[in-house]
Design goal:
Domain Cytochrome oxidase subunit I profile (chain A): 34-539
Structural class of chain A: mainly alpha
Family (chain A): Belongs to the heme-copper respiratory oxidase family.
Radius of gyration of chain A: 24 Å
Bound molecules: protoporphyrin IX containing FE, copper (II) ion
CATH architecture of the domain at 141-280 in chain B: Sandwich
Largest sheet of chain B: 5 strands, mixed
Order of helices and strands of chain A: HHHHHHHHHHHHHHHH
Strand content of chain A: under 5%
Shape of chain A: globular
CATH topology of the domain at 141-280 in chain B: Immunoglobulin-like
Catalytic activity (chain A): 4 Fe(II)-[cytochrome c] + O2 + 8 H(+)(in) = 4 Fe(III)-[cytochrome c] + 2 H2O + 4 H(+)(out)
Largest interface: A-B, 104 and 97 residues
EC number (chain A): 7.1.1.9
Oligomer: heterodimer
Main location (chain A): membrane
Strand order of the largest sheet of chain B: 3-2-1-5-8
Strand content of chain B: 15-25%
Helix content of chain B: 40-55%
Chain lengths: 580, 292
C-alpha cells in the first residue's frame, strides 16, 4: 500500500530493542490443560468462545421473539414461552455476552498492551471465568423447570413469590450473584494489573485507549456490582425468608427495587459500551494510518462518562410517581452525558479525517459502529427529555434505542475487535471476503430490524407484548423488522463460519499484520506463554511506531526490496539476539 | 460494477426501499397525539427535538461518510499526522452543550402546560370535585384508575383515597367514559403488580405502582364527542405485568356532556340492580334453596 511509509520492523538485523518472542515452554496439551490454565491468553480465549456461544443462544432467542411478532395476533408461542424468551434473551445478552465478552478481550489484551507477562492474579482470573460458567449453567438450568418471566429487570412485585413462585426467578438471582462475583473478581484483577504492571515508561498518559476503557469498566463494575448483589439478595429473602423489602403491603417499596436496580443498571450500560469505545479508539488510527485525534480528550471523556453514568439512573423511571425536581435532575444529568459522548464521536471522525483509510474488515465494523451508535446516542436525547419519555418509555422506540446503543456500541465494536485481534490470538487472518460480506449483511440487517421499531413505538406498541393488534402500521413494521432480524442473523453466521474456517486455514498473520501501534503487536502471533522476552521502554502512546522508526534509523532507511512473507517475518521477529 | 461492489449496493437499496416505503405513509415519525393538549405539547417538544436531531444527524453522518470516501487510501496519499486541535475540540464541546441547553430550555417552557391541568371549557362538565392535582378553578372530573392483573378498573369518584365514598361510586372496567371539553384528572394506583396507564393520543404514560398514587390528566376536544357513541381512544398497559400484559387493554370513550351524564346515571342504576340481584341471590343461597 502506497500510503505506508514506515518500513516493517522485521527488516533489521542489528541487535535493537525490538524483538521478541520465541517459545519458552512447550504449551501444555489436551483439554485438562485448558481447564486448569491460569494463562491470561487461554482464559481470554475461553471467555471469548463461551460468550460467543451465549451470543448465538441469545440470538436464537431473539429470532424466535421476532418470529412470534412477525404478524399481528400470532399464536406461534404461548404468552408464557414468549415472556421466558425475552427474559432469557435480555439476560443472556447483558450478563452472559456483552459484559463478559469485554472481559475476554481485556483478559487477552490488557497484559499484552501494557507489556505485562500475565494478569496480577492469574488464579483469580481463572476463578472469574469459572464463576461465569457457573452463572450460565445455573441460569440455563432453569430450562429444565421454568425459566423466569420477569424481563431482565425483574421488577418487584412481579418478581415476588406471590406472582412468580417458579424457581426461574431464583435461578436468575443466582445468575446475577455468580456473574456479578465473576465480574467483580475480574475487575479487581484488571485494576491491579493496570495500576501495577505497566512496562517501564508507560505512564498514565501513554496507556492505550483500550486499556483506559477497561480500567474505567473495572472501576464501574466495582462500584455498581455490590448494589445489585445486595438488591437481589433482598429479593431472595423477600421470596423465601419472609422479609418485606419490596412488599408495599408491609411497609416495603417496589420503587426501592427500581432505584437499586437502575443504580446498577445504568452504569451497566456504560460497562457494556465503554470497552467497545476503547476497541474503536484502537482500530481507527491503525487503518487510517494516523494518530488518534485528541488522545487526552478521549481518555478523559471515558472517565467523565463513567462518572456521570453513576448519576443518571432514575431516567429509567420517569413514568414512576416522582417529584418534578427529581425528574429535572435526572434529565439534566442525562443531557450532560451527551457532551463527552459527542466529543468521542467527533474525535473518532477527526481521526479518519485526512488519513489514508484502508478498507479492511475491522475498519468497516468501526465505521459501522460510529454511524449506528450515533443514532442510538441521538435517540437517547429524546428519552432523556422526560415529558417526551412519557410517550416513549416502555415502547418499541426504547427497544430500538437500546439496541442501537448495544448493537452499535458493543456488538459492532466487538466484531471490529474480533477481526482486528484474531490474527494475534490465532496466528491467522480472518478471511476478508467473508468478513466484508458479514459486515454488510449485519449492517443492513441491523438497520432494517431496528429502525422501523422506532415507528412501532411511536404508534403505540408497548414492549414485552407477545402479540399486538392489527392497528395502524404495526403489521408491516413488524414484518420488516423480522425480515431484518434474519438478515442480521445470517450476517453473524457468516462471521462464525469465517472463524471456523480461518482457525485452521487462514493466511498466516505474522506478528504485526496491520502495522499497528500498540505493544501486543510486538510479540509473535499467537504470543508465547510469557508474552515477551524483552519489554521495550515505552516512549509514547504508540510504542510500535517508535520501534519501527528506530529500525528505520538504524538500517539507514534501507529496506529490503523483497518483502518478507508473513512466515518469514514471523521467524525474523523471533530475533535470536533476544534469547538472553 | 463488479459483483463484489454490487452486493453491498443492492443490499443498501433493499434496505432503503424497505425503510422508506412505510415512511411515505404519515405518522411514522412522531408520537400519537391529537386527543388532548398535553399529548399535543409533548408532540411539539418531540418534533422540535426531531428537527434538531435530524440536523445533528445529517451533519455528523455526512462528515463521517465524506471522510470515509474522501480519504480512502490511494497511491501517493500521505496521512496527516495530526494529534489534536484544542480550539476545535473546545468548539465542538461547547457546541454540543449549547444544543442541549436549548432543548432543556424548550422543555422547561412547555413543562407547565404538559404537567398542569387547565380548566374545563365553558361547555364542559363543571364539577366542584376535589383532587390532589387541581386545575386553576379547582374543578375537574376525577377518576380513580386501578390496575389489576389484567384489567383496569375505573371509579368515578372525587376522592380516591376515601374507600367509604368510593364504595357507592359508579365504576367500570376496561372502558372509561368521559365527557369532552372537560378536564379529567386521574389518580393512578395498582393493587397487585406494577402496571402503566397509557392512551397514546391522550398524553404520556404513568406507572401504576402498588403503594403509590400517580397522577395525570387529559382534556378531549369537543369534536370527538360530536357523533353519538363518541370516539374511542385505545391503549395498552405499558409495564410488564405478567403473562397477559399484552391483553391488558385500556379504552377511553369520549362522549358529549349530556351523553356522559346519561351514561353515568344508567351505570348507577345498573350497578344498583346488579347489587340487589346479587343480594337476593346470596339470601337465597344462605336460606338453603337450590333454585337460583
Ligand atoms: C441479534 C439481534 C437481536 C434481535 C433481533 C433482538 C431482538 C429483540 C427484541 C424483539 C426484543 C424485545 C422483546 C420485547 O420487548 O418483547 C429484545 C429485547 C432485548 N434485547 Fe435484543 N435483540 C438482538 C440483539 C441484542 C443484543 C446484541 C443485545 C445486547 C446486549 C440485546 C439486548 C436486549 C435486551 C436487554 C432486551 C430487553 C429484554 C427485556 O425486555 O427484558 N439484544 N431484543
Ligand atoms: Cu398491566
Ligand atoms: Cu402490563
Amino acid at each position: 500500500m502506497a500510503a505506508t511509509v514506515e518500513a516493517p520492523a522485521t527488516a533489521s538485523t542489528a541487535p535493537i530493542p525490538q524483538v521478541v518472542a520465541r517459545r519458552v515452554d512447550p504449551e501444555p496439551k489436551g483439554w485438562v490443560s485448558w481447564v486448569t490454565t491460569t494463562d491470561h491468553k487461554r482464559i481470554g480465549i475461553m471467555y471469548l468462545v463461551l460468550t460467543f456461544a451465549f451470543f448465538l443462544l441469545g440470538g436464537i432467542e431473539a429470532l424466535l421473539i421476532r418470529l412470534q411478532l412477525s404478524v399481528p395476533n400470532n399464536d406461534l408461542l404461548t404468552p408464557q414461552t414468549y415472556n421466558e424468551l425475552f427474559t432469557m434473551h435480555g439476560t443472556t445478552m447483558v450478563f452472559l455476552f456483552v459484559v463478559p465478552v469485554m472481559a475476554g478481550f481485556g483478559n487477552y489484551f490488557v497484559p499484552l498492551m501494557i507489556g505485562a507477562r500475565d494478569m496480577a492474579f492469574p488464579k483469580l482470573n481463572a476463578l472469574s471465568f469459572w464463576l461465569l460458567v457457573a452463572g450460565g449453567l445455573v441460569f440455563y438450568g432453569s430450562l429444565f423447570f421454568s425459566p423466569p418471566e420477569c424481563g431482565w429487570t425483574c421488577y418487584s412485585p412481579l418478581s415476588d413469590n406471590d406472582y412468580l413462585p417458579s424457581g426461574g426467578v431464583d435461578a436468575w438471582i443466582f445468575l446475577i450473584h455468580l456473574t456479578g462475583l465473576s465480574s467483580l473478581v475480574g475487575a479487581i484483577n484488571f485494576y491491579a494489573t493496570i495500576a501495577n504492571m505497566r512496562a517501564p515508561g508507560m505512564g498514565w498518559g501513554r496507556l492505550p485507549l483500550f486499556v483506559w476503557a477497561i480500567l474505567t469498566y473495572a472501576v464501574l463494575l466495582i462500584l455498581a456490582l455490590p448494589v445489585i448483589a445486595g438488591a437481589v439478595t433482598l429479593l431472595l429473602t423477600d421470596r423465601h425468608f419472609g422479609t418485606h423489602f419490596y412488599d408495599p403491603g408491609n411497609g416495603g417499596s417496589p420503587l426501592l427495587w427500581q432505584h437499586l436496580f437502575w443504580f446498577f443498571g445504568h452504569p451497566e450500560v456504560y460497562i457494556m459500551v465503554l470497552p467497545g469505545f476503547g476497541i474503536i479508539s484502537e482500530v481507527l488510527p491503525v487503518f487510517a494510518r494516523k494518530p488518534v485525534f485528541g488522545y487526552k480528550a478521549i481518555a478523559a471523556s471515558t472517565v467523565v462518562i463513567a462518572f456521570l453514568g453513576l448519576l443518571v439512573w432514575a431516567h429509567h423511571m420517569f413514568a414512576t410517581p416522582s417529584p418534578s425536581l427529581v425528574l429535572i435532575f435526572f434529565m439534566m444529568s442525562s443531557f450532560l452525558i451527551a457532551v463527552p459522548t459527542g466529543v468521542k464521536i467527533f474525535n473518532w471522525i477527526a481521526t479518519l479525517w485526512r488519513g489514508t483509510i484502508e478498507y479492511k474488515t475491522p475498519l468497516l465494523f468501526a465505521v459501522g459502529f460510529i454511524g449506528t451508535f450515533l443514532i442510538g446516542g441521538i435517540t437517547g436525547i429524546f428519552v432523556a427529555i422526560f415529558p417526551v419519555d412519557w410517550q416513549l418509555t416502555d415502547t418499541y422506540f426504547v427497544v430500538a434505542h437500546f439496541h442501537y446503543v448495544l448493537m452499535g456500541g458493543a456488538v459492532f465494536a466487538v466484531f471490529a475487535g474480533l477481526y482486528y485481534w484474531f490474527p494475534k490470538m490465532s496466528g491467522r487472518m480472518l478471511g476478508e471476503g467473508l468478513g466484508k460480506t458479514s459486515f454488510w449483511l449485519m449492517l443492513v440487517g441491523f438497520h432494517v430490524t431496528f429502525l422501523v421499531q422506532h415507528s412501532a413505538g411511536l404508534e403505540g406498541m408497548p414492549r414485552r407484548v407477545y402479540e399486538y393488534p392489527d392497528i395502524r402500521d404495526l403489521a408491516v413494521l413488524n414484518m420488516i423488522s423480522t425480515v431484518g432480524a434474519f438478515i442480521l442473523g445470517l450476517g453473524i453466521l457468516v462471521t462464525v463460519i469465517n472463524v471456523l474456517i480461518s482457525v485452521k486455514r487462514g493466511a498466516i498473520a505474522g506478528p504485526d499484520p496491520w502495522k499497528a501501534n500498540t505493544l501486543e503487536w510486538f510479540t509473535s502471533s499467537p504470543p508465547p506463554v510469557n508474552n515477551f522476552d524483552t519489554v521495550p521502554r515505552i516512549r509514547s502512546v504508540e510504542p510500535m511506531k517508535d520501534i519501527r522508526r528506530q529500525v528505520l534509523a538504524q538500517t539507514g532507511g534501507v529496506v529490503s526490496s523483497a518483502q518478507p512473507t508473513p512466515v518469514e517475518a514471523g521467524r525474523m521477529a523471533a530475533h535470536p539476539g533476544a534469547d538472553a | 460494477m463488479t459483483p463484489r461492489r454490487a452486493i453491498p449496493a443492492l443490499l443498501v437499496a433493499l434496505a432503503a426501499a424497505l425503510v422508506l416505503a412505510p415512511v411515505a405513509s404519515a405518522g411514522l415519525l412522531t408520537p400519537e397525539h391529537g386527543g388532548s393538549s398535553n399529548a399535543d405539547d409533548i408532540n411539539w417538544l418531540y418534533t422540535v427535538t426531531l428537527i434538531v436531531a435530524a440536523i445533528v444527524f445529517l451533519g455528523v453522518e455526512g462528515v463521517l461518510l465524506y471522510s470515509v470516501f474522501k480519504f480512502k487510501a490511494r497511491r501517493g496519499a500521505v496521512p496527516a499526522q495530526i494529534r489534536g486541535n484544542t480550539r476545535l475540540e473546545i468548539g465542538w464541546t461547547v457546541g454540543a452543550a449549547v444544543i442541549l441547553v436549548i432543548l432543556a430550555t424548550l422543555t422547561f417552557i412547555k413543562l407547565d402546560d404538559i404537567r398542569n391541568p387547565p380548566d374545563s371549557s365553558a361547555t364542559g362538565l363543571q364539577l366542584a370535585d376535589s383532587s390532589r392535582r387541581l386545575p386553576p378553578n379547582g374543578k375537574s372530573l376525577n377518576i380513580c384508575v386501578n390496575g389489576q392483573q389484567y384489567i383496569w378498573r375505573y371509579t368515578y369518584s372525587a376522592d380516591c383515597g376515601d374507600s367509604a365514598k368510593n364504595l357507592g361510586a359508579p365504576f367500570s372496567y376496561e372502558e372509561m367514559v368521559v365527557p369532552v371539553d372537560t378536564t379529567v384528572t386521574l389518580d393512578i394506583k395498582a393493587q397487585d403488580v406494577a402496571h402503566s396507564w397509557w392512551i397514546p393520543e391522550l398524553g404520556g404514560k404513568f406507572d401504576a405502582i402498588p403503594g403509590y398514587t400517580n397522577h395525570t390528566w387529559f382534556k378531549i376536544p369537543a369534536k370527538f364527542g360530536a357523533k353519538p357513541g363518541g370516539t374511542i381512544f385505545y391503549g395498552q398497559c405499558a409495564e410488564l405485568c405478567g403473562r397477559n400484559h399484552a391483553n391488558m387493554i385500556a379504552e377511553v370513550r369520549a362522549v358529549s356532556v349530556a351523553e356522559y351524564q346519561q351514561w353515568l346515571a344508567q351505570r348507577k342504576t345498573d350497578i344498583q340492580d346488579a347489587e340487589t340481584k346479587g343480594a337476593a341471590q346470596r339470601k337465597q343461597l344462605e336460606s338453603g334453596s337450590t333454585t337460583p
